[in-house]
Amino acid sequence: MIQKGVFIAIDGGEGSYKTGAISVINEFISSKGIKTVLTREPGGTPFAEKVRSLLLAIHDEKINENTELLMMYAARSQHVENLIKPSLVDGYCVITDRFSSSTIAYQCFGRGISRAKIDDIERIVLNGFCPDITIIMDVDPEIGLKRARARGVLDRIELENMDFFKRVRQGYLAQANDNPDRFFVVDASGDFDNAKKQILDILKMKFPEGI
């Protein structure tokens, strides 16, 4: 049985069916009579959405890697304290498109920022707070970026080179390997129906009826 106040994160590289995955999870959770809150990172609150716009926009000025990292955590702090935690206290199941697993993948593995530096900021901002489960939508960057380009104009981060996104993918898989009780990997390289089946299998395993 799904307990109220569950926090679920959906993560993965570009073009990995995250939006569709969130819809599947929301429908599954809602069918059990649990209220849901759908949110995203960076973003989720009015202030954090403004930070998102700055982060993803293309600027004439180069965005320093540390600036990007700190902006991510500034938005996350607002998101967690002003939306996620209050929603969990009120009994909602919170489903977020990206969370701190994205920061490890993009800023640590992708940008090369040390894990120790990120962990220090993480302790200040989150102090151990994390999703109950994180579902990683895994796809080869060649496939994912082709899907992303088909959606239209790419943002600043989506314009990075292929080697960057290969490192990002490695970052996600490394986290899943290190945290097998909390991370679940979905093969999103095929069609969405196949990915959907995997997602539902994870949810049924994690939240079986009668428990």
From TrEMBL:
EC number: 2.7.4.9
Reactions performed catalytically: dTMP + ATP = dTDP + ADP
Organism encoding this protein: Aeromonas veronii
Entry keyword set: ATP-binding, Kinase, Nucleotide biosynthesis, Nucleotide-binding, Transferase
Entry's family note: Belongs to the thymidylate kinase family.
Top-rank taxon: Bacteria
GO CC aspect terms: cytosol
The protein's name: Thymidylate kinase
Role: Phosphorylation of dTMP to form dTDP in both de novo and salvage pathways of dTTP synthesis.
Membrane-spanning ranges: none
HAMAP family, sorted: Thymidylate_kinase (MF_00165)
Entry GO MF terms: ATP binding; dTMP kinase activity
The organism's taxonomic lineage, starting at the top: Bacteria, Pseudomonadati, Pseudomonadota, Gammaproteobacteria, Aeromonadales
Gene: tmk
Keyword Transmembrane on entry: no
Domain Thymidylate kinase-like: 10-199
Pfam families: Thymidylate_kin (PF02223)
Biological-process GO terms, alphabetical: dTDP biosynthetic process; dTTP biosynthetic process; dUDP biosynthetic process
